[in-house]
Amino acid sequence: MSPISSRLLAGIAALGLGYALIGGTSSLAAETSLRAPAPAVVAPATGTSETALFAGGCFWGVQGVFQHVKGVTSAVSGYTGGNVRGPDYERVSAGDTGHAESVKVTFDPRVVSYADLLRVYFSVVADPTQLNRQGPDVDTQYRSALFPTSEPQRKVAQAYLSQLSAARLWQKPIVTRIERAQPFYPAEAYHQDYLTLHPDAGYIRFNDLPKLAALKQLYPQMWREKPVLVKG
Question: Is 0.85 surpassed by the pTM of this model?
Fold first, then answer.
């Protein structure tokens, strides 16, 4: 069985167990999301475009959330953090490449700051207390990690992690790591825009649509109805 089939079956099984929790999508989102505090440290915008790398479980949902954030001009699913050149989905799914499923986000810092993106990430994208997993997806390729692409981003990320730890919003300790930015490899075409193209898939309905509902509910000022897509 291919890894993608396993993932879909896991989502469908979870859907069968937890369907009563969804109701639409907002009830599940309310249980798995929270409104993280506004970052105390924000780097000033020094240009019109920046890139940032986020890993937070399956890249379908990570990409799907950031595609709906105002100021984001591109969100591409891919792989980073490992030592294997030119990885593909099958190779990364083996769990021994060091790569994480991740998303490269390009954004206009005059509209949305890196600190804002971190707030979205910790509020609705990933559970920072899960070590080497997110929901039904388990192993190091699904770790929660930030890959700052500049020194200002690194300082903002460090400050926000310290702020969140002090706030004690979660019952368990935060295990999200800040890792050194490494080459990013775009994922295969069939992974791009997956949430938008397959909203009725069991995995998406149970794991990812609630994230969109939470984003729209918690941060309406950042919500963009029409996502920015890789495939246009």
Answer: yes
